[in-house]
Amino acid sequence: MAEIETVESVSGRYWHRLDDGRLQCDLCPRFCRLREVQRGLCFVRARAGDEIVLTTYGRSSGFCVDPIEKKPLNHFLPGSAVLSFGTAGCNLACKFCQNWDISKAREFDRLNDVASPEAIAEAAAKSGCRSVAYTYNDPVIFLEYAVDVAAACRARGVRNVAVTAGYITAEPRAEFFAAMDAANVDLKGFTEGFYKKLCAGALAPVLETLEYLRHETEVWVEITTLLIPGENDSPAEIEALTAWVMERLGPDVPLHFTAFHPDWKMLDRRATPPETLLRARRIAREAGLNHVFTGNVHHEATQTTHCPACEARLIGRDWYEITHWALTDEGRCPDCGTALAGRFDGPAGNWGRRRSPMRVGIGA
Known about the structure:
By secondary structure, the chain is an alpha/beta fold. The protein has two domains: 10-54, no CATH class; 59-358, TIM Barrel. The chain has eight helices and 20 strands. It has a nine-stranded mixed sheet with strand order 16-15-14-13-12-11-9-8-20. The protein has a three-stranded antiparallel sheet with strand order 1-6-5, with no helix packed on it. The longest helix has 15 residues, at 235-249.
């Protein structure tokens, strides 16, 4: 835990005082216990006097307009543009983090953009984005800011997307996801050993988040698992993971298997071979999952959505670009009439694979 420096901050929620005078953060399962001028592991929630504060409210590491498929979300407003942003810090410590320069940031000079919730909502609406994504670092750690931005977006008819590891406790989970319309949850592996060794976390809270989202909310959910050679890519682990998804979440939750590339503290590992992704996809399909995709590789056949009933090709994708669209206006297969699980609102958008950085708020 590090000493706090002078930054803009707002009062945080979800903490309580312990008998020994420390303040315990109750936002995530770490339950960091802070004395004066200490920060939690996430680095952005800190003790200031007799409260815990969020030190990154209104400050971002940058804004970018992306294709929604980059989140990745394949069954949520396909082809549309999403305004993406994050702050700094993270409540997990993944050795393979592929956004480590943001999520592991310990210097606030990385937070170059200062933007109010209203400014972000206005920028999204004016740029034609149908949603705002809270991403790059885990948004649960900036809950107060994310919830305020989400309210401003909904007032402008803009939807909200969380890209998260789902490492959050029950009460804040309910508030956070009540503000979201879709989520991609990063299920990093399927053993407690993997989470402990490579993420300094635990698996069980993530599974609780997934079940909560699927059964107690209207949030559209997709799952991503980054397959790391020799760590979480064995057939036995993939079988266990996909069987759990099938049994606890059902066959229609899209599952993305994505390729690892050497990064952060795992530069000594090789990149994931495409065959590993294809094998994982076969296992998942054999388990009964209807929508299983590959990512971080160029393989159009396994990035395409098919009808779960008749296998008709419904949504073709090449990287993040929609190449084929056959859904009816009601979101059904034109051949057999089966409804496709997802959030579809008319035909696909035409944003394509563009990625456009932008400035929002002060100095924009």
